[in-house]
Amino acid sequence: xxxxxxxxxxxxxxxxxxxxxxxxxxxxxxxxxxxxxxxxxxxxxxxxxxxxxxxxxxxxxxxxxxxxxxxxxxxxxxxxxxxxxxxxxxxxxxxxxxxxxxxxxxxxxxxxxxxxxxxxxxxxxxxxxxxxxxxxxxxxxxxxxxxxxxxxxxxxxxxxxxxx
Length: 164
What we know:
The longest helix has 16 residues, at 33-48. The protein contains two helices and twelve strands, in the order ααββββββββββββ. It is α+β, with helices and mostly antiparallel strands. A hairpin with a 4-residue loop joins strand 2 and strand 3 (87-94). The strands form two sheets. Strands 1, 2, 3, 4, 6, 7, 8, 10 and 11 form a nine-stranded antiparallel β-sheet that branches. A three-stranded antiparallel β-sheet has the order 9-5-12, with no helix packed on it. The chain has helices spanning 16-25, 33-48, and strands spanning 68-71, 74-82, 87-94, 98-100, 103-105, 109-120, 123-126, 130-133, 138-139, 142-144, 148-155, 159-161.
């Protein structure tokens, strides 16, 4: 089946007058909040499982995705969100001098240092080091003097930052 080119007036199926009458006869219905919430949940589940029914692989290239600043000198690139398991996997880039406030862990967090170095209080981690923060634990401030790139996997909403 070929694409129809609607740029040419002779290719139009309906003329402008009929199209206008049809568009004018459609009445907008207020959305049922519960139905909207269910639809949003289905869309988010589909996003979390981007290839349902296909091979269980997802590849994210280096240039894919966006780095989002979550606090000064700290950016995050989400790799995958698994809503069924309540798990989020992401990269965290700490620029030189970055500081992340002390925080509690509502879920277990896996942290793998890809490059650079990061300090959790007196604990210094270097490229290749892996660190687990178990549910209920508390991290001291995290800082990076020269910068670091981290891979983290944690429960969605797994951190609770101190506000004091």
